[in-house]
Amino acid sequence: MSIDEVLARMTALLDELAQAGDARAAFHATYLRTTRAVADALRAGAFLDADWVERWDAAFAGLYLDALDAARRGEPVPRPWSVAFAAAAGERSLPALRHVLLGMNAHINYDLPQALLAVIGDAEFDDPGLLARREADHRRIDEVLTARVRAEDNELRALASARSWRDNAMQPLNRAATRRFLRESRAKVWANAATLNRSRRQGEAAYAGRLAQLEELSAARVADLMRSGPVLLRLATRGFGIRLPGP
């Protein structure tokens, strides 16, 4: 699946979510805009290996889109997504920012390491030069996302029904916190992908055990975001990502 096909699928789904008044539309719209930014960066030649980045982006998006489709059909989904989607369907009204953070957390912490493994084989993990190129493009994605922080904050401000003076005063700190947790979580994702790769080499049972650990830790972090309070500042101090334990 190409990135243009991903964008077409996401655009159609956003129309359906918006028409249904589905709270999941907040994260979906943010993700759609950032995917367009990645597509623009690909066309601009921003990556060392554009073909690999496009395959990675399609694999990454597919994990979320498949979970969303399954949830809409009433089928089971991985626990991080189950928590995030349940919040969107719950009676408690949450701001759009919270739904965006829930979706981002589930997608980055749980889906991203798996997406990296889907496009980095064992031989590539054993090639230091090639792996360094993959990691450089992985970091370049951070730069694309960080450049979107101000624009996404403005999009979420437009969705808010009312903002207090405290919200406005905290805005610069919130943006700084967002940039910080994007960098922090993606560094942990890269380490988790390496851990998953080691378990993948040990066999299906070892990999399944590690993936179950990742699912449990990711779901717990998503659930933690449901607590009230200044969530971005809490993430800035406690961290956004999760880290798989050592052997």
Task: Annotate the secondary structure layout.
Layout: H1 3-19, H2 25-43, H3 50-72, H4 79-89, H5 96-119, H6 122-125, H7 128-146, H8 149-159, H9 165-202, H10 204-224, H11 231-238
Helix pairs in contact: 1-2, 2-3, 2-5, 3-5, 4-5, 4-10, 5-9, 5-10, 7-9, 9-10, 9-11
Radius of gyration: 18 Å
Q: Low-confidence segments, ≥5 residues, pLDDT <50?
A: 161-173
| Beta-strand segment tally | 0
Number of helices: 11
The topology string of helices and strands comes to: HHHHHHHHHHH
Q: How many independent structural domains?
A: 1
Strand content: under 5%
Largest pleated sheet: none
The secondary structure category is: mainly alpha
Rounded mean pLDDT score = 86
Helix residue percentage? over 70%
- How far is the N terminus from the C terminus? 35 Å
Characterize the overall form: globular
